[in-house]
Amino acid sequence: MVEVEVERIDPGPSAGRKLPQRAVQALAPVLLALLIDAGDLATFPGTTLVALPLGMVAGYLFAGFLRVATPWRVIIACVTGLYWALPFTGLFPLATSITTVVEFLGLDRGKDESRG
User: Fold this and answer.
1) How far apart are the C-alpha atoms of 111 and 87, rounded to whole Å?
2) Is 9 a domain residue?
3) Hey, which of 3, 11, 24, 63 would disulfide with 73, CB 3.0 to 4.6 Å?
4) Is 10 within a domain?
């Protein structure tokens, strides 16, 4: 008599379920960058004392939402704070532009370490 061992393989999520997940992974950084640019547009010259800490908090929270490693979160927070504090940067959507290019090129941001 021959014994047969059956192993069930989980098919994983279907293509219909993967699409929303992929859309969130691709669009979340760009949408957060849009919010950073909107915050920069809302800060006026002369509001450096308010814009710097608010930008740092926003950058830290948004980087946390994207599951960026802590050292990078601090760097992103500092850059965002400076971006909001510098005068006349509101007309240049730098955060959105840089993030869109990075997402388009698919540059590796250490996905195995932080954004799994």
Assistant:
1) 34
2) no
3) 63
4) no
